[in-house]
Amino acid sequence: MTRALLRTIRDWRLPLGATVMVYLFVGLLLPLLLVSDLVVALRRAEKRGRVLAMPAIACPQGHPVELVGAFRCPSCHLVAPWVHGFDRCGFCGEIAAAISCACGASVVNPLFEREESS
Ligand SMILES: [Zn+2]
Ligand SMILES: [Zn+2]
């Protein structure tokens, strides 16, 4: 994000004085951006902690689905015993998009994000 911003400013090809002004402005803005990044990271960590503390979740049909146990990683197919179904795979780092209930319905992983944004 920050690097992209600096690159954009360079691509504007402003006169030196104006470039210095823009850099000063960005210099003032940067701490704010870092703080907002930090807040996002903290919120994500807080949400992760909350989700991983759940021992079970209800499927769309209302059945309780155990979240702690043996889960097969969707990417490397490693079956890890005694893990949280919504946590990252300890081997390849893949995160399951959803886990399925015995009734066939799937429970979406609230921690799953299609694109890694940071
Ligand atoms: Zn894996
Ligand atoms: Zn179910």
Question: What report would you give on this structure?
Answer:
With 118 residues, this protein is α+β, with helices and mostly antiparallel strands. The protein has 2 domains: 2-49; 55-108, no CATH class. The chain contains 2 helices and 6 strands. The strands form 3 sheets. It has a two-stranded antiparallel ribbon with strand order 1-2. A two-stranded antiparallel ribbon has the order 3-4. A hairpin with a 6-residue loop joins strand 3 (68-72) and strand 4 (79-84). Helix 1 packs antiparallel against helix 2. The longest helix has 37 residues, at 16-52. The N and C termini lie close together (8 Å). The mean pLDDT is 90. The site of one zinc ion (ZN) has 8 residues, from loops.
In short:
This protein has helices at residues 2-11, 16-52, and strands at 56-58, 64-66, 68-72, 79-84, 98-100, 106-108. With 118 residues, the protein is α+β, with helices and mostly antiparallel strands.
